[in-house]
Amino acid sequence: MEVNISRIGFFVIVLLFPSSALAQALFSEGVLEYSVQIKSVKDSVDRQGTYLIQMKDGNARKELKLNDGYSNVGIINFNSRRYVFLQKINHQPYAVEMTEKEYRKQTAKYLGAAYKREGTWLPENVEKQDQLPGQKWIVKYKDGKDFIVYVSEKYILQHPEIFEHSPQLKGVPVFFQIAMENGYTMSFRLEKCLPEPVSNAVFRIPEGYRIISKQEYDKLAK
After folding, report:
1. What is the CATH code for 5-221?
2. Which of 91, 110, 85, 109 is nearest to 218 (CA)?
3. pTM (2 decimals)?
4. Which stretches of 57-106 are assigned E, i.e. beta strand?
């Protein structure tokens, strides 16, 4: 079975709400890096890769890279509400701009969810001193579906909506899984959480990319 990875693209991920928000340090600039595994219905690893998030001053750059060569980059400016994702069609690079309405339409199903803190820990991370421990949260969407995420309460993100699956919450996800079409599952495990300076250059559209609307992109991608 083939997985249409491009549908995952710009909208990958999640978040949480800690009970001890006052004790959290603000994470407004830095890097989050996740290892990624895609498993088939038989639970065998089909693909692997990385998911890198860089953030600074209301900007975020999110890049998913898989070992088969697939790459998807999203660039967001939460201050100006500009949403761009970088893609190639027939080797031509495009910077696809989404309107506020288009972006909200994609993420609306994650709003108004109920969050329950289970209090259990991700066992592997408790045993590893270099890993952030994660507590289990269950997110129940309005359509009745559940989303499970293990959360570190060490930091509070300046823009938790970086994680579209739980845009109203705060924290850093340590481990979560996204169910894909055809029974495949995409798993994310936090490998690096680094509050450190980030260059402004990473949030710019690279040279050579043609800026188009989402409507134009959808026609070209058919």
Report:
1. 2.50.20.10
2. 85
3. 0.83
4. 59-66, 71-77, 82-89, 92-98
